[in-house]
Amino acid sequence: MRAAFVTPPPGLAPLTDFNLEEVPGAQGLFTLTAAEEPAVRLFLLDAATYVPHYSPRLSEAQREVLGPDVPEAHLFVVANPGPGGTSVNLAAPIVVDLGTGRCAQLILEGTDYPLRAALAQAA
Question: DSSP strand E in the chain: where?
């Protein structure tokens, strides 16, 4: 599906158009690939599947980023695979309106959520 960020994700400006695709055979694992630069790719995990107790509180302004009524918003966390295991960014989730493809990476302020939490510990 097409994923259109309302503003470029941090560190990826000026890119806003991406393709979100589930990895076959890996439930809840997705790739987010820049439409204009396919070499730019992130791995996203369905938060409900991989970090089920993760429930960040979004500010009113953050909820309004995608629009006033987003019935199909879905929460993802960015995964960073590495030699010591996979970590996830809990401080800046990606929220996608599955109905429209509009999305945003929201920076959570005033929380203790880490930028790099070991996946096993985050679950």
Answer: 2-5, 17-22, 29-34, 41-46, 73-82, 85-97, 102-105, 117-118
Domain residue ranges in the chain: 2-122
User: Could you tell me which residue, 65 or 107, shows the higher pLDDT?
Assistant: 107
pLDDT in tens, 88-98: 999 999 999 88
Nearest to 66 by CA among 106, 107, 13, 32: 106
- The listed CATH number (3.40.50.720, 1.20.1260.10, 2.30.290.10, 1.10.287.70) that belongs to domain 2-122: 2.30.290.10
User: pLDDT by residue (tens digit) across 14-61?
Assistant: 999 999 999 999 999 999 999 999 999 999 999 999 999 998 887 777
The CB density around residue 50, as the number of other CB atoms within 10 Å, is 20
122's enclosing H/E stretch is: helix 119-122
**Interacting residues of 28 by C-beta distance below 8 A, sequence separation 6+:** 45, 46, 48, 49, 50
